[in-house]
Amino acid sequence: MIIAHYLHRLPSDYDLEVIRRRAAARGPQWDAKPELHFKAFLLREGGRYGAAASSYSSLYLWRHDEAFTDFVTGDGFKVVTGSFGRPAIETRTVLDARKGAAREARFAYKEELDIPLDVDLCAVANAEIERNREVAAQPGIVAATVGVDVLTWRLARIRLSMHEPTAQSSGTAYQILYLAKPLLDTLEPA
Predict the structure, then answer these.
(1) 3-class secondary structure, 67
(2) What is the DSSP string of 97-156?
(3) How far apart are CA 155 and CA 94, in angstroms?
(4) Phi, psi (5° rounding) for residue 91?
(5) CA–CA dist 108, 105 (Å, integer)
């Protein structure tokens, strides 16, 4: 599995209703996408939930790397590049991905952590897998996944939640405008 995330920064005067309409219109096209566990259409609105500026992004959990490659090199990605240009895409190899018991995802949280140079990578991976299982079992969680970027040796912890951010929430919070989840139910339960 592979996590893919890309972000488009928006001008301060950008009409965010355009983004909301775009997600509502394009989201259902992803509801039956083969090899896709989920795609979240995400918004960070300047001045809300800790966002200094507005951005629009897409977050994917692909079942196979080949499906991600087919998307990026196919006609579907031209919609992105035609509207926003070619984004830098962050990818992570998945260590663990679980579905939670909640059904409605309103927010996505992304937490990134450096893996210290001198730690045992196997121990880190095992601890993150166990932690992810515990996160997925928490009330309000729709899905939780953790991945590693082997170029920068950074972890990405991602959770889809029905809960609005609080002062105790960890990670960057994104509003989920639309969640396509064609294969979400095939993930291991918490």
Answers:
(1) helix
(2) EEE-S-----EEEEEEEE--TTS-HHHHHHHHHHHHHHHHTSTTEEEEEEEEETTTTEEE
(3) 10
(4) -125, 145
(5) 8
How far apart are the C-alpha atoms of 45 and 42, rounded to whole Å? 10
46-59 pLDDT, tens digit per residue, is 999 989 999 999 99
- The reply to whether 188 falls in a domain is no
- Distance CA(6)–CA(140), nearest Å, equals 25
In eight-state DSSP terms, residue 171 is S
Question: pLDDT tens digits for 62-116?
Answer: 999 999 999 998 887 887 777 777 888 999 999 999 999 999 999 999 999 999 9
Say which DSSP state 151 is in.
T
Kindly state the tokens that stand for 123. Answer: 């121990």
Residue 154 is part of a domain; what is its CATH number? 3.30.70.100
Which domain, by its residues, includes 117? 2-183
Who contacts 87 (Cβ-Cβ below 8 Å, separation ≥6)?
Answer: 6, 7, 8, 80
Structure tokens at 109: 């949280």
The pTM for the full model equals: 0.93
Residue 72, helix vs strand vs coil = helix
- Which bin fits 50, alpha (ψ -120 to 50), beta or left (φ > 0)? left
Domain assignment present for 190: no
